[in-house]
Amino acid sequence: MSAERARDADFDDLVGPHLEAGYRTALAILRDPDEAHDAVQEAAFKAWRRIGQLNEATSSRAWFLAIVANQCRSTRRGRWWNVIRLPQVDQTGPDVDSTRTDIERALAKLGTDDRLALFLHFYLDLPLDEVGTVLGLSAAGAKTRVYRAAKKLRPDLEMS
Description:
This protein is mainly α. It has helices at residues 3-8, 11-15, 19-30, 33-49, 60-77, 79-83, 98-109, 112-123, 128-135, 139-157.
């Protein structure tokens, strides 16, 4: 889509279908529902202001998720992010599926970019070229990031 057509297109049609994926992406990065909502709202505003930057080479989904990821990175760099953090609630108990807990624990050990790469590719089912767009990498770089992140998970998930 050319910049001129993007400006003429309905913003809701371009970004609206990707808001849920944007929220899930923000939640994967920030791990706080309130912060994730705030990040998606700010990202939507930035996307609206930058609608002219959307071009044919980039899908609207990858373009918007890249803005969300960048907003989350900015949030994490912010002063208050490092100063005020609520304690994580331990959800262990008879109701919690142990496999899910093991996966969540293993994912928590990964760095933000590795966790994001796995989330985008396996959970949102984005192709590697779109994962690369969101992460600011080439498709080959995204493939390498996903492979290495998955490799880091294996020791924590292997049955003993």
